[in-house]
Specification:
Oligomer: single chain
Strand content: 5-15%
Distance between the termini: 34 Å
Shape: globular
Number of domains: 2
Largest sheet: 5 strands, parallel
Structural class: alpha/beta
Radius of gyration: 22 Å
């Protein structure tokens, strides 16, 4: 809200995302995380927050590309002195630049965030495109990763997939729903597809939520997962071979569930079973 206020109450959506990104570069503890997206640096959380602010009448979207304040409340006054200084710095440096000039600035200074851009080829020079290309990660080795989203933002999560050149995310939750923004099935699928990563949900390899109740110690987890290996994994061997086929076709895939600690998540047992299949041609790592 303060950023919109600082720039006259209205900004194009792409311009807004770039200026917000540049503002967070002035912060020690950044208010938002970003991913390289179709038009450069993008924050899913900021976009969701704008939708919430629209719901409560603080902003309006007169068209699909514009964000405007609908209140005269002084949001800048509510910021601490350091963030006020950061806002002033961003305004001084960028208020006289066009949107395209700001986009090109972010691409030049932070080329990683341009690696998924749909417009870089049109607006950047050959040398600048070469620098962007160098930020891309390409690995030939087939690999199986596991990743949990507990305690991290959607942006941090997606960036971990990108920098490890993950081609496909395999969701092994029984029910792909989360109260944490970004990690329900449709949200996660959309975020992945926006950065060129496939998303597949394999609920057959999940664990019923009622079996996760009253897990108080690592021993409780171990007992549950031992039972899971004896029952669910054996009863759904076809689903396990399906995941194996995904590794063979997409080369670098990641198994995902909620828990940060793989020892407290059944994805570790899925990974173990995949590594025990005959002749695995892939390595295993935790993201």
């Amino acid at each position: 809200m303060s950023l919109l206020q600082m720039f006259g109450g209205s900004l194009h959506a792409i311009h807004f995302q770039k200026l917000l990104f540049l503002f967070t570069r002035t912060q020690t503890e950044k208010s938002f995380d970003f991913v390289p997206y179709q038009y450069g640096c993008f924050s899913f959380q900021a976009n969701q927050d704008l939708s919430t602010m629209h719901k409560y009448g603080y902003v309006n979207f007169p068209d699909t590309k514009t964000i405007e304040l609908t209140t005269e409340e002084d949001f800048l006054a509510e910021l601490n002195m350091f963030d006020q200084a950061g806002m002033a710095q961003v305004k001084e440096q960028f208020e006289n630049m066009t949107e395209q000039e700001v986009v090109k600035y972010t691409y030049r200074k932070y080329p990683y965030y341009a690696i998924k851009s749909k417009i870089a080829n049109r607006i950047m020079s050959k040398d600048e495109l070469s620098l962007i290309e160098k930020q891309k990660r390409h690995y030939l080795e087939p690999a199986l990763f596991t990743i949990g989203y507990e305690g991290i933002s959607l942006e941090t999560y997606i960036n971990r997939l990108i920098v490890n050149d993950v081609h496909l995310l395999c969701d092994v939750r029984k029910n792909a729903f989360s109260q944490k923004y970004g990690f329900s099935k449709s949200q996660l699928d959309m975020a992945c597809s926006g950065v060129g990563i496939k998303y597949v949900h394999v609920p057959q390899l999940g664990i019923e939520s009622d079996k996760r109740r009253d897990l108080r110690s690592q021993r409780d987890y171990d007992i549950l997962f031992d039972e899971y290996e004896r029952t669910t994994l054996k009863e759904n061997i076809e689903a396990l071979f399906y995941v194996r086929s995904l590794i063979e076709t997409d080369k670098r895939i990641a198994l995902t569930c909620f828990e940060k600690d793989p020892k407290q998540c059944h994805r570790s047992r899925v990974a173990k079973a995949l590594m025990q299949l005959p002749n695995p041609s892939y390595t295993l790592a935790q993201l």
